[in-house]
Amino acid sequence: MSHALRSLAAGGLILATLLMAACASDPMPHSVSTTPIDLQRYMGAWHVIAHVPYFGERGHVASRDEYTLRPNGSIGVHYVYQEGFGQPVKDLNSRATVKDGTGNRRWTTWFFGVIPTKYRILEVAPDYSWALVDYPGRDLAWVFSRTADMSDAQYADLVAKMAVHGVDTHKLVRVPQLAEQEGQPGFAAAKKPRQR
User: Fold this and answer.
1) What is the spatial distance between Cα 111 and Cα 27, in angstroms, rounded to a whole number?
2) Contacts by 25-30 with C-beta closer than 8 Å and gap 24+?
3) What is the rounded average pLDDT of the residues 95-124?
4) What SS3 class is residue 6?
5) Torsion sign across C-alpha atoms 52, 157, 144, 173
6) Confidence (pLDDT) at 41
7) Domain presence at residue 60
8) What are phi and psi of 159, to 5 degrees?
């Protein structure tokens, strides 16, 4: 083998070794699973266990999203919340469309029929009991659950999963779903707290 060929082979071997080392040290923390989401199973009510607060949801308690698959393939989004326990139940309706070729993981939601926002499903439990969602590029994220309460241990596990997906979990706060959670450490304050 000529000197030039040996140098080329050695260079290729070094490059391959460096690439393998890089892959081994970086488990692709910002990746999203490619397993398709079963839209039928994803439909229904999801309680907002935690979120990165923003003006549209700040101060809400007992909040949940209810998704309905429509005959035309779009998704009805019904957001239900209170501004405090004992306050009237309020709601907002919007719609969502699913981006083709994304395994049903990337949606565009249309608030007031005209304002588009992005929605990305990062991970879903095998039994569809919880889901991790973010808004790519906007630093927003949500932890969803089919039930209104979640143990501290499971919540900690899901926060760790969120971090693997690249979410800044220091900004996550828990949403009070039950009256006894109001005022507890780690839970967001209600817009209209109960009078003690």
Assistant:
1) 35
2) 27/164, 29/163, 29/164, 29/165, 29/166, 30/165, 30/166
3) 91
4) helix
5) negative
6) 98
7) yes
8) -65, -40
Residue 31: what residue type? S
Q: Which of 36, 25, 191, 21 is nearest to 124 (CA)?
A: 36
Residue 77 lies in a domain: yes
> Has residue 147 got a pLDDT over 80?
yes
Which amino acid is it at 100?
A: D
**The pTM is what?**
0.81
Q: Is residue 190 situated within a structural domain?
A: no
Residue 50 resides in a domain: yes
State residue 112 phi and psi, 5-degree precision: 55, 20
User: Is the pLDDT reported for residue 112 higher than 70?
Assistant: no
Indicate the number of domains in the chain: 1
CB 134 within 8 A of CB 141: yes
Share of the chain above pLDDT 90, in %: 72
Number of residues that make up the chain: 196
pLDDT tens figures, 166-189? 999 999 999 999 999 999 999 999
| Residue 139 reports pLDDT greater than 70 | yes
Q: What DSSP string describes 50-100?
A: EE---TTTTT-EEEEEEEEE-TTS-EEEEEEEESSTTSPPEEEEEEEEEPT
